[in-house]
Amino acid sequence: MHSPATNILLLLSTTLIASAYQDDVRFTELAEKLTLRSETVPTGAGVAVTQVEASASGTADNYVPDGANSEFTGKAITDQTGGGGNSSHATTVGVNLFGNETSIAPGINTIDVYFADDWLYSRGWFTGFTTPSEDNRLQNHSWIGTTTSSAASLRMDFAVVNERNDAEDDGFLPIAGLNNGNTTTVPAIYGSMYNGITVGRSNGGHSQGGTVYDTAGRLKPEIVAPSGLTSYATPMVTATAALLIENAGTDTAAKDQLTLKAILLAGADKSAFASWSQSSTQPIDAIYGAGQLDAYESYFIQEGGQQAVDSTIGAYGWNLSTIAPGTDHDYNISVPPGFTLRNLSALITWNRIVTKSGRNYSAANLPDLELSLSDNSDPNNLTTLQSSNSSIDNLEHIWRDASNALPEGDYTLTVRTDSSADYALAWRSQLYQDYTLWKAAAFTAATPVAEQDADDDPEGDGVINQLEQAFGGDPEATDDTSILPQFEIATDQGNDYLQISFRRPDFENGLTYTVETVNNLNDTWSSATADVEIISINDESDGYQRHTYRCVEPITANDQGYLRVVVSQ
Hints:
By secondary structure, this protein is an alpha/beta fold. Helix content is 17%, strand content 30%. It has helices spanning 27-36, 88-98, 116-121, 151-165, 230-248, 257-266, 295-303, 435-442, 465-471; strands at 8-11, 48-53, 62-64, 76-79, 85-86, 110-115, 138-141, 143-146, 173-177, 197-201, 223-225, 316-323, 329-335, 340-350, 353-357, 360-365, 369-375, 383-388, 395-400, 409-417, 421-432, 486-492, 495-505, 512-518, 532-539, 544-551, 562-568. The protein is globular.
């Protein structure tokens, strides 16, 4: 056994706390959207994970999730250390990570569990000649270790790069929690690692003040999740990573350790944190990191696909590339007429390089990358709008919310470095077009200004300008009624249902669409889900989707029925 003076393992909590978190991380919203689009909802199927746990009692070796728990039916939970007893802490971590009901990744069925002492001292993750290695794609560390040594973070960072560079290995991403309490110090194990993700709590109740060990002042955590304890916030992030790995399929770049990290951080939600801030040398917030875990945004970043250097990028996407010093990697952004681009989140991350000699590990190189955003609308006056260039962190981040939206024009995200490095860039953004922007782009001089108000109908086709905007019409075309909602009677399992479908843009336009139904026009219209439900969303051309709703009650049960779409600002 090790000396307590050398390393003390601390549990983040031993209290059993289980809660469904799907709504908070927008997984429920994601699953509903994918189902409506007849697309498969990922579950983390086929992804094997490593769960490392400290002893629940502090003395006895109780560190294994309780296999008798109904959340774990069908799971292969293997105690790789051997001889461990059940732990309520490990059980709750497992419930959030791979539980059949609670987790967003219930498809995870292969779990290798290690006792933290064994992990550090017998498996080569803290001391000894054994080279640490990992066969699974994800590690979850809902525990901390206090020490003044950087050995654990050095070995972890070495293992991440070593496995990533192994042609016969898929690599892995370690995800670890910070300590609880906003007055606690960022722990050395594993809060100080470079090449993984550290997790805090959405309420800010975690270690703060930056790293103390292995280069002081680095920003931690990288992301937060909605739990009252970091132990249980951490597996939420790990579960989301498992969804992305499954969704990537055979695309190795999409599930690369760097790509996963960039996607998770770029997708993080900042809207709950009024105090969230960054600067040119502080890429993420000192308390909330990149923001709160957002499975919805991260999924669609990955779905946006890999987009090459020097291309004009879409609203969502990512790239995995290698950059050399003296070379700019440009990613071009075009904001079309009649639009602004808001909520731009672009993030790059790269690995620290660690070398090994015998049982000694040392930091060999941390490339210094920079991410900047420039306005190229005037080729004679290129303007840098924002830059992120920390000298000690291994990530950079550009964030522009709705109050700092980009107007129509051409822009470029640029990556630079002082030494060669593999990096991943991930981004998301939102095209926005309210009525004022739409009007400026939709009308020509042929339409008098006095006829360009929302309730005008200058071409006299019976469709006012507001509805032209709502359904993607041309306010100067006289035969544009085809854009209006369509009605039909659909037969399902012997019953007839009244349905309505309509076009809606896949960008934000400041409008609210509400489908309402009533059986008698003398009654009150209802939009309650007990009366009307959405059944499908299908892509159409030109950036629009067709949304289809139907009455919950068959029309055969009533003498008459009505549906309508109410569009409002």
